[in-house]
Design goal:
Structural class: alpha/beta
Bound molecules: adenosine-5'-diphosphate, magnesium ion
Largest sheet: 7 strands, mixed
CATH class of the largest domain: Alpha Beta
Radius of gyration: 19 Å
Mean pLDDT: 97
Number of helices: 14
Number of strands: 12
CATH superfamily of the largest domain: ATPase, nucleotide binding domain
CATH architecture of the largest domain: 2-Layer Sandwich
Low-confidence stretches: none
Distance between the termini: 19 Å
CATH topology of the largest domain: Nucleotidyltransferase, domain 5
Number of domains: 2
Length: 349
C-alpha cells in the first residue's frame, strides 16, 4: 500500500512530506520539506482565540494538501494519507481544570480539507486516542524506531532532535514492551528563539561562551531527573522560558546537548545512538553530543532513512496501522493503560 505522511513539528518550520510503500517493509518513495509561507509560522507560534485557531485549522489543511503535491508522486498512486497536522497545544500530564483532572492535546490542519483536495482518505489526529487511555499522547515515534532499529545484539537509542528532543531506548533483542521513550528536554526550540530562524550549523553557539552558573541552575530542573514516561513542549521551553531565564544561544545549545547526554547516560549498555530531525544539521550541537556520549553517534541516513523525513514516515506508518485497525501506540512509551487504535478518519470524497 502507498501511504503519504505529513507533519509539521513543534519547530513549525514547514511541512515534512514522505511517501512510502508499506508491505512487510517500509520503502521510502519520496520525501521533501515545504516551508510555511511568510507569516504562517508566526501565526502558529502566537495563535490564540477560537477564531484564529479555526481559521488556521482550515488554512493548514489547504497547505498540507498542497505540500503533498510537491513530493513529485502522482496523487492517483497514493492510497492513504496520515497527517499529524500542527501541534498548537500539548499537555500530556493532567492538570486541575474546572474541578477535574484534564490532559489534552490539540493538532490542527483539517483532514477533511486534505481528503477533499487530494481525493485520498486521510487519517489524522493520532495523539488523542492514547491520551484517552491515560497515556501522555507522546512519543509515538517508538513504534517506528522499534521496527527500523531493533537489533538482536546491539542496544540502540534512536534520538530525534526537533524543537523538542526525544529518545527511544531499544535494548538488544527487545520486545515492544521493553521499549522506553521520552522527551529529554529542549531540542532546537530554545536555540531557534535566540538565533532566528535557526543557528546555521551551530556557528553562533560555537562562537559564544556558556554561562556555567545559568546552565547548572537550568540542569537542576526536576524534569530531567523524573522517571519516564514524560513529555514536554513549547509550554515549558517556549518564549516564556527564554524571557525568564535570559539564556544565550551557546548556553541553550549546551543545555540541549547535556540533557540529551544525561538521558542516554541512564542506559549504560547503549552501543549506538541513531539521530534524526533537523538538529542533525547543527554541526556544533552534534560535535558537543558526541563529546558527551560514550556510544557511537550516527544518523538515520546510515540506515537509509533521511533524518528530515523520519517523522513523516512515522505518520504514514501510523495511518497504515489504523487502516488495518491495529493499535500503534506503545503503552511502555506513552504510559497508556492499553494499546489503542489511533487517529480519526476523513474518507475520500
Ligand atoms: N543547517 C542547520 N543548522 C542548524 N540547525 C538546523 C539546520 N537545519 C535545520 N536546523 C534545525 O532543525 C529545525 C527543524 O527541525 P525539525 O526536525 O523539522 O523539527 P520539528 O520536528 O520540531 O519541526 C530548525 O528549526 C533548526 O533548528
Ligand atoms: Mg519541522
Amino acid at each position: 500500500m502507498r501511504v503519504a505522511g505529513l507533519i509539521s513539528g513543534t519547530s513549525a518550520d514547514g511541512i515534512d512530506v514522505a511517501v512510502v510503500d508499506i508491505d512487510d517493509r517500509i520503502q521510502v518513495v519520496a520525501a521533501t520539506t515545504v516551508p510555511y509561507p511568510d507569516g504562517v509560522r508566526a501565526a502558529i507560534l502566537s495563535v490564540s482565540g477560537a477564531a484564529s485557531i479555526s481559521r488556521l485549522n482550515f488554512l493548514l489543511g489547504e497547505l498540507f494538501a498542497e505540500a503533498l503535491q510537491h513530493a513529485g508522486v502522482p496523487l492517483e498512486t497514493i492510497d492513504l494519507i496520515g497527517s499529524h497536522g500542527q501541534t498548537i497545544f500539548h499537555e500530556g500530564e493532567p492538570v486541575d481544570f474546572l474541578g477535574r483532572r484534564v490532559a489534552s492535546t490539540l493538532q490542527i490542519g483539517e483532514p477533511a480539507v486534505i481528503a477533499a483536495r487530494t481525493g485520498i482518505e486521510t487519517i489524522a489526529d493520532f495523539r488523542p486516542a492514547d491520551i484517552a487511555q491515560g497515556g501522555k499522547g507522546a512519543p509515538l515515534v517508538p513504534f517506528l524506531d522499534y521496527q527500523l532499529f531493533c537489533h538482536p545484539e546491539i542496544a540502540r537509542v534512536a534520538l530525534n532532535i526537533g524543537g523538542i528532543a526525544n529518545i527511544t531506548v531499544i535494548p538488544a533483542g527487545a520486545k515492544p514492551k521493553d521499549v522506553v521513550a521520552f522527551d529529554t528536554g529542549p531540542g532546537n526550540m530554545v536555540i531557534d528563539a535566540l538565533a532566528p530562524p535557526f543557528d546555521r550549523d551551530g556557528a553562533a553557539a560555537r562562537g559564544g561562551s556558556v554561562n556555567d552558573a545559568l546552565l547548572a541552575e537550568l540542569l537542576a530542573d526536576p524534569y530531567y531527573q523524573r522517571q519516564p514516561p514524560k513529555s514536554c513542549g513549547r509550554e515549558q521551553f517556549g518564549a516564556e522560558f527564554v524571557r525568564a531565564t535570559g539564556i544565550d544561544v551557546a548556553t541553550a545549545t549546551e543545555l540541549t546537548a547535556r540533557t540529551i547526554a544525561l538521558a542516554i547516560g541512564r542506559y549504560p549498555g547503549t552501543g549506538e545512538v541513531i539521530a534524526s530531525g533537523g538538529g542533525v544539521h547543527n554541526v556544533y550541537l552534534m560535535e558537543r553530543l558526541q563529546a558527551l556520549l560514550k556510544p557511537r553517534l550516527t544518523t538515520s541516513a546510515e540506515f537509509g532513512i533521511d533524518p528530515d523525513a523520519k517523522e513523516a514516515i512515522l505518520f504514514a506508518l501510523l495511518a497504515f496501522e489504523t487502516h488495518q485497525r491495529r493499535a500503534a501506540n506503545l503503552p511502555s512509551a506513552t504510559g497508556a493503560c492499553k494499546p489503542a487504535i489511533l487517529g480519526k478518519i476523513s474518507p475520500a470524497t
